[in-house]
Amino acid sequence: SAPAHDFHAFTPVSAAVQREIEPVGPHFLAHARRKRYKRTFSEDERI
Amino acid sequence: MSDSEDAAPRVAIGITFGNSYSSISHTTVEGRAEVIANEEGDRQIPSILSYIDGEEFQGTQAKAQLVRNAKNTVAYWRDFLGKSFESVDPTPCHQSAHPIAHDKTVAFSIHDSESEEPNNVTVSEITTRHLRRLKDSASDFLGKQVTAAVMTVPTNFAEVQKDALREAAQNAGIEVLQFINEPVAALLAYDARPEAKLADKIVVVADLGGTRSDVAVIASRGGVYTLLATSHDWEVSGSKLDEALMDHFAKEFRKKYNTAGDPRKDERSLAKLRLESEAVKKALSLGSTASFSVESLSAGIDFTATITRTRFELLARAHFAAITRLIQSTVEKAGLDPLDVSEIVLCGGTSHVPRVATSLQSAFPEKTVVWAPATRTDAINPSELVARGAAIQASLVADFDQEDIRESCHPVVTVTPHLKDAIGVLAVSGDERGHGKFVPIVLASTSVPVRRTAIINGPPAGGDVLIKICEGSKRIHVEHKEKKEREPVEADSDDSDAELSEDEEPIKSEVWHTERVIAEAALRGVAKGAKIEVQINVGPDTGLTIVAREVGGKASVRGSVPAYEES
Fold it and tell me: Domain range spanning residue B286?
């Protein structure tokens, strides 16, 4: 991997806005599954 | 009821229950969503019930009874469910059974049995009877007993209305698996097409119905939908187009037979006029001329006339403009510009009217795709969209436990942080002379966690590359064409002023503005003309992980940015 000085973090992204996503469609169901089992994207793909 | 559930497998369909029409739908074994035709061959089944000597009629048969048996015909009651009499607008029911107050709810006083005395039948009971008939039609078609459904509702349907609908459905033997919002169902129907590509886009769904129109602005991010703004309008609707035709034909009739009365003044004549005008409107969506013909319209006189589509478009011009305005104002409500809108999905029966779609197309930028039969040959039938979406969702959740569905729809799952601004890279290479150009990778209003990857061009000469990860926002750049041939004079008449402003219509374009630099990454010794892949991972707390690497090369850099914390 690259040396640490090749990456500099300056500031976090702006505060997020809380909104409601629609519980509809295959991609939502995948989101709900990940959220309920607290999985990341790559963990979810492996299963 | 859950005790007996374990034995038989669940058979789930999609049900769209509207004030004017209802539809039933299922997905085929190949996974295609289909709208089911009832015994009469109707896919759009009028939401109307009528009684003669205790016999019940529904759908098209009941609709025909609006002329001869209006008092025992119930129509346009969906929006009354779960509401008190004081809070409903009974206007659409003027020509059928009138709603009355009954306990805390709304009822209709109708002769629904053979007895002389009318019964007070609540809207809940009417709904149950209607849904039972829909369920039976679907069961007959599928050859197995339907037990469950996903039902669609408008976005402003309150919890009490959903509870009332759930109960009415339960009484009809239907387990409601989930209520989904109508505009989202319509969008799902488009996204479920095999040829559809997942994209990040802003979609406006305009559901143009018979008695109301509903508009929703939706951020579609990789197939996950977020409602940004909604509007509901009971003045802008298909019935207004019918009324424009009714007035026209009533005037024509009076011109021809000036001794006969106004057909709009007699209830039965008015009902005939309304039914035939709706039929003429539908015919004008398909052909360029249509004929209006009613036997014994008024004073025993048969009346026949023809009308062209052009004439109709002139008569209803104000209503078309109102539809366009409603959609434009909802985009504004979402804090967006028409340039931000990638697609407009038209659904609901009124979307068949060609002028509705063409006026919208000219009011929005050319690149905005308007999904309607008049503007796209590959558009899906707008009357079927919502029902198809319901069928798709039904097939997705049919095997889930009721508990699982409830938990997935819980705010703990659905309320998520959405990015305020877009995140992307500022590509600084030779040809952009230091300023760089912002390339968005994750758009604003995307829910997190999210992962997106983009390929950007490295410098043509190769060498070291600085990748700036930035937040960016879209601005609308307005360019006024400078045409100073003559000074605008205040004494000018209104007419020439209008002409002048039309000449000088500003040219708008979208420009990305870099808000701030989040992080910098350096890739060293990149090959000549290399492509660079940048992956941005936004965690559930909006913390970032960034990976940049040369496509096909060995060089790669990785780093993370912690999440924003309220101090």
Answer: 238-317
Written as one string, the DSSP assignment of B271-326 is: HHHHHHHHHHHHHHHHSSEEEEEEEEEETTEEEEEEEEHHHHHHHTHHHHHHHHHH
Asked if B408 lies within 8 A of A36 by C-beta distance, the reply is yes
Q: For residue B185, is it within any domain?
A: no
Our count of domains for chain B comes to 4
Q: Which of residues 471-490 of B touch A (CB under 8 A)?
A: 471
pTM score: 0.91
DSSP characters for B505-546? PPEEEEEEEEEEEEEEEEEEEEPTT-EEEEEEEE-TTS-EEE
- Complex ipTM tops 0.90: no
Same domain, B458 and B539: yes
B187 in any annotated domain: no
Residues of A with CB under 8 A from a CB of B: 1-2, 6-29, 31-32, 34-36, 40-41
* B33 and B158 together in one domain: yes
pLDDT tens figures, B138-154: 999 999 999 999 999 99
